[in-house]
Amino acid sequence: QVQLVESGGGLVQPGGSLRLSCAASGSIRSINYMGWYRQAPGKQRELVARITSAGSTNYADSVKGRFTISGDNVKNTVYLQMNSLKPEDTAVYYCNAQIGLYGSTLWYNRWGQGTQVTVSS
Asked: DSSP strand E in 53-121: where?
């Protein structure tokens, strides 16, 4: 019913930049929030940044000042601009959204398939 499709991952040198995109599609009535999580090998998945439909944002302390999340409510798309990347930013990045569907009053939590970000020289 709903798909989250991510793009923009890859290999970048320390200090470089990448921009991730995530587009939601399907029978979407409304989106409460969209965000990005990441999971490094051997570590738990952690919240990186989130943006609500009203535009409120929150970030993990480790990325504040370096990453910027933004959204396009018309396109149901969220972006993550990542600057000054560090090797410790290496992880699989997952898009996450809380979505309301047509024909339902419930909210559903959905995940993308993940995109690899590798920061290495």
From this structure: 57-59, 67-72, 77-82, 91-101, 107-111, 115-119
- Parts of the chain with a pLDDT under 50: none
b/e sequence 57-94, b meaning 16+ C-beta within 10 Å: eebeeebeeebbbebeeeebbbbbebeebeeebbbbbb
Contact 117, 89 (CB under 8 A): yes
Classified as helix, coil or strand, 52 is strand
**Three-class SS of residue 34?**
strand
Confidence (pLDDT) at 103: 87
**What are φ and ψ of residue 67, in 5° steps?**
-110, 145
Return the amino acid letter for 75.
K
What is the pLDDT of the chain when averaged over all its residues?
A: 96
Query: Which of helix, strand or coil describes residue 8?
Result: coil
